[in-house]
Amino acid sequence: MQPDLLPGHRAATVLHDLRHASPLVHCMTNDVVQTFTANVLLAIGAAPAMVIEPEEAAQFAAVAGALLINIGTLTAERSDAMLVAIHAANESSTPWVLDPVAVGGLTFRTRFALDVLTLKPAAIRGNASEILALAGEQSGGRGVDSTDDAFSALPAAQRLAQYTGAIVAITGERDYVTDGKNTWHVAGGGELMTRVVGTGCALSAVVAACCALPGSRLDNVAAACQFMKRAGEQAITVSHGPGSFTPAFLDALYALNAEALA
Amino acid sequence: MQPDLLPGHRAATVLHDLRHASPLVHCMTNDVVQTFTANVLLAIGAAPAMVIEPEEAAQFAAVAGALLINIGTLTAERSDAMLVAIHAANESSTPWVLDPVAVGGLTFRTRFALDVLTLKPAAIRGNASEILALAGEQSGGRGVDSTDDAFSALPAAQRLAQYTGAIVAITGERDYVTDGKNTWHVAGGGELMTRVVGTGCALSAVVAACCALPGSRLDNVAAACQFMKRAGEQAITVSHGPGSFTPAFLDALYALNAEALA
Amino acid sequence: MQPDLLPGHRAATVLHDLRHASPLVHCMTNDVVQTFTANVLLAIGAAPAMVIEPEEAAQFAAVAGALLINIGTLTAERSDAMLVAIHAANESSTPWVLDPVAVGGLTFRTRFALDVLTLKPAAIRGNASEILALAGEQSGGRGVDSTDDAFSALPAAQRLAQYTGAIVAITGERDYVTDGKNTWHVAGGGELMTRVVGTGCALSAVVAACCALPGSRLDNVAAACQFMKRAGEQAITVSHGPGSFTPAFLDALYALNAEALA
Q: Which terms does the record give in the GO molecular function aspect (chains A, B, C) (predicted)?
């Protein structure tokens, strides 16, 4: 049975809060999606900052509204800086979000991701393969693609949420967002979003921005998913392929309002 | 005398194979073109993955359909990871492609590029200056620009192909693709493509994707060149400058079909 | 009292010189803006090259028309390469430009930026918070945002110009460009430019390109600011948000002419 859809008015409240607070999101993310991630955050009304030198990452994580840890192009050096930032974030009660890109198949990042699970992430956002791998189950993932269905990974996501205390978002054709007990379902978007690099990674940054907001974290994270699904849907209707999708998507995020979320 | 043009129906067959196989391309490329490279691969129907940590690069090169080595922003650390990946690729019969960005003028990358020539690249894609430099001839290159004509570099490309066993593509206003004996000529594109960063680097990624396919590697590499030339030509007709070119180009790659290649 | 506006015919002369010389700009810049910076330089008629390995950076800084040092994602390793490049640039009389991203709040980059101030930058481009921080004054900056007004930072910019010998550009809603004695004022642009990552960083690259040109460096730097303001203004009139702004902005830079600058 499908969990309930996040009501549009809840998403609208979170959007209002996001634009009012314009949270500063400290992004430690992969080399491929830096620009798109920053532009997505700016378009929706948050403030991105990419700070990676270990001393500075610790300083910055302490003052940022939220910290994003994305392991897409993890290196030994970057993983050290991320650990320093996560600890600084925890000491300052800055929420941090994990995007476990392509976890499961690759040894180095899998070890890192499993290690940081114990460091109290506020939220985890991944596709079905990634969530299954984090929860210790078999994954059919191939690189960053997910060959698993989001709904089938929901039980694993619920266990992962219970074990880590994080809100867990499994994204795919439909998204499921759970705190281990309650679950929202988010629909929308479209296949074209998978033909543009970084839509998932940028969503994780928006999840981080929403973790900086007051109110129910479960609702906040589900709202982040809803923003992207709705803007994606709108952009698809006016684009002719993945090239024209990207500007249309950023325009849609910028113009997003309560009406569009209803 | 100009070599023959690659027939459109051959390019169409390669495009069909590419979309059917959707090869996973392990990209170890420069910092400037990561996003565009990934989006070009996604638009045409391949699957990009950027994996750079040495242990992971070795793991991934072994399972990927092809490996791309682009030295545009080479560092000592990255060159070590690339070597590990190339050796793993060779052990697993994963074809790997060299993009020798700005080779010739800069000492560190030139040494690296000459070293890896002996490690059996499946293909090499560069502009005339770069191919001349790899073949040990004088180059008039200035940074990443090519001040040499592609056709005039064809004899050097043929020698390079014979020496390395690679398919060599020299790209410019016209492209020439040779296995040292047979050569295809590819026309199309336009000057605006040189005003957008990464069109050459992204072509090398598409060359890598096509090296993962069955059939004649010479035809496959020439087809990769043809895809970019044709999509570029189509994008130029609907764009007003290099800004609107980029989305139009990705849309054209996404929509590319046998008719457009005829 | 507002300084005089840079006359349009002066900006037009600089644009003409820029397109004629097409200076090669060696960019050592942050991870987030690499592609956009390269595309901005290509669109306006300069030639970008990102070279970061220390040995190569020294080689390249010596032959480039100008060197850009942007500390947005500074690391210990990158700062060493930058120092090598700055020294090579100075030995070869290659002008170099400092973009002190987010200086003030973060210790590592602040130390680096203050150190290199003594190495004779040709120009410094920052927002009000960054210029105040470099001049040793309190800054209200929050990450890369500037919460200070450009005009109020003009006295600090003038002192900084006198101390370093650099042309100093403070950019914001209006830009001020000073050599410590004479000051130009540049108007235009619009709020949407702050919703796209890298417009300031790319401006610094254009400033570097203009520092490679003959004539008054003060005028050249102010002209760089004017190019971006005017192209931004034009792009805003035809765009629907930050997504459609970017292609329109690159198209406007490409099409920029004396008439538009008048």
A: hydroxyethylthiazole kinase activity
Q: Was A110 annotated as part of a binding site?
A: no
pLDDT tens profile B25-60: 999 999 999 999 999 999 999 999 999 999 999 999
Separation in Å, CA of A162 to nearest CA in chain C: 34
Estimate to the nearest angstrom the gap between the alpha carbon of B244 and the chain centroid: 23
Q: What is the dihedral of CA A190, C245, B251, A38, to 10 degrees?
A: -60
pLDDT given for residue C147 in this prediction? 53
Map residue C137 onto helix, strand or coil: coil
Q: Please name which of C74, C65, C62 lies closest in space to residue C30, comparing C-alpha atoms.
A: C74
How far apart are the C-alpha atoms of A171 and B38, rounded to whole Å? 20
Helices (H) and strands (E) in chain A, counts: 11, 8
DSSP three-state, residue C215: coil
**Contact present, B258 and B15 (Cβ < 8 Å):** yes
**Residue C112 Cα to chain centre, angstroms:** 18
Tallying the residues shown for chain C, one arrives at 262
Residues 6+ apart with CB under 8 A from B107: C55, C56, C59
Does C189 count as an annotated binding residue?
Answer: no
Average pLDDT for runs of 10 along chain C of length 262: 92 98 98 98 98 97 97 97 98 98 95 98 97 84 59 96 98 97 96 97 98 98 98 98 98 97 94
Domains and CATH numbers, chain B: 8-254 (3.40.1190.20)
Helix (H) or strand (E) holding A115: helix A107-116
Residues A25 and A68 sit within 8 Å (Cβ to Cβ): yes
Q: How many CB contacts within 8 angstroms connect chain B with chain C?
A: 95
Check if A251 contacts C (Cβ < 8 Å): yes
Q: How far is C46 from chain B (nearest CA, A)?
A: 10
DSSP class of C142: B
Pairing of strands C123-127, C96-99: parallel
Measured in whole angstroms, how far is the alpha carbon of residue A1 from the centre of its chain?
A: 25
**Contact C28/C49 with Cβ under 8 angstroms?**
no
C-alpha dihedral sign at A192, A193, A194, A198: positive
Please state the rounded mean pLDDT for residues B70-97.
98
Shortest CA gap B123–chain A (Å): 23
SS (H, E, C) A182-239: CEEEECCCCHHHHHCCCHHHHHHHHHHHHHCCCCCHHHHHHHHHHHHHHHHHHHHHHC
Option in C24, C34, C249 nearest B142 (CB): C24
What is the structure's pLDDT at B137? 87
3-state secondary structure C148-180: CCCHHHHHHHHHHHHHHCCEEEEECCCEEEECC
Count of CB contacts below 8 A, A vs C?
96
Whether A116 shows a pLDDT value over 80: the answer reads yes
DSSP string covering B76-117, please?
HHHHHHHHHHHHHHHHTT--EEEE-TTTTTSHHHHHHHHHHG
Nearest CA in chain B to A143: B49
Q: CA B88 to CA C199: how far, in whole Å?
A: 41
Rounded to the nearest integer, the mean pLDDT of chain B is: 95
Tell whether C198 is in a known binding site. Answer: yes
Condensed to tens digits (0 to 9), the pLDDT of residues A70-80 reads 999 999 999 99
Q: Kindly determine whether residue B50 and residue A36, on different chains, have CB atoms separated by under 8 Å.
A: no
- The DSSP element (H or E) to which C260 belongs, if any, is helix C258-261
Confidence of residue B1 (pLDDT cuts 50, 70, 90): confident
Cβ distance A254 to C246 less than 8 Å, yes or no, reads: no
Beta strands in chain A (DSSP E): 24-28, 47-49, 66-70, 96-99, 123-127, 167-171, 175-178, 183-186
> What confidence tens digit (pLDDT) does each residue in B163-191 have?
999 999 999 999 999 999 999 999 999 99
